[in-house]
Amino acid sequence: DATGYEAFDLIGGELAERLASGRETAPEVVARVLAKWRRFWGQLPRQMLSRDEQLGLFAEVWFLSVWLVPGAGVAQAVIRWRGPFGSRHDFEWAGRSVEVKATTSARGRIHRINGLDQLAPPENGSLLFFSLRLHEEAGAANTLPSVIAVCQAQLQSDADSMNRFENALA
Q: Half-sphere exposure of residue 157, counting CA atoms within 13 Å on the CB side?
């Protein structure tokens, strides 16, 4: 069917590029690439993230990449990211939760709380609050796509963690 040639070329090109890198085995490459495209085509169409949602995602991926991966390791860091799956707090593990917030307010660290439950500590532990103050600039080096790319580079050596991360992004 000629209507599928473009999609097939895109998937085939990605498979060839990843196989040529030699960082993963052929079965790992095929499984990851096909899983990614299944997620893409299997989702219901939805609107683009709002500005606030983009800021929140930026802050969560920043926290994951800059704070959690170096401290907990790749696998544990991604497992602890629970916000995209509807958890009360953005990051959760035994005895601790972290709520991540971002703001662009020039008047200080002013954040929107999405309900009192968001500020309640976990049943058996403590709640930490991570605040990231952002300044928007047209030529900024740190953008949402660039922060995601940095995190993906950190996860490159662990196919399971990369798959979890991409599922969370989706």
A: 5
